[in-house]
Amino acid sequence: MSLKESLGKVTIVDFWASWCGPCRKENPNVVAIYKELHSKGLNIIGVSLDKEASAWKEAIAKDNLSWTQVSNLKFWDEPIAKQYGVESIPATFILDSSGKIVAQDLRGPELRAKILELLAK
Question: What is the mean pLDDT of each run of 10 residues along the chain (121 residues)?
Fold first, then answer.
């Protein structure tokens, strides 16, 4: 899985973990945005900071996360999180269709509004 595969689409890179309460609380909102806007060009990549594959996979199923999920199961040593400078989760990075980070850590209505703005361009 390469982020380059997402170029040309508005993409949310969502850093989360099964053990993160605030992450799990935000997941239903992200699921709703994905269901509404995926067909209009939204892509999401979930990056987990989990350590245990079973807990991670169970959370994906329970929260209905139907987009691409990746994890090296390295907790805070997750290389992708280090690349993005993630120091706390949930952390979201919104990339425009050229792959440029245009916003981060938006939640709920603010996240949806930003995605709609980017998709309208």
Answer: 66 96 96 96 95 97 96 94 94 92 94 95 84
Task: List, in order, residues 6 or more apart from 80 with CB less than 8 Å away.
Answer: 15, 47, 70, 72
Report the greatest alpha carbon distance in the chain. 40
Return d(Cα 99, Cα 86) in angstroms, integer: 18
- Cα-flanking dihedrals φ and ψ of residue 73, to 5°? 55, 45
| Six-digit token string for 39 | 């067909």
Give pTM, 2 decimals.
0.92
Which domain covers residue 88, as residue numbers? 15-119
CATH code of the domain in which 85 resides: 3.40.30.10
* Number of structural domains in the chain: 1
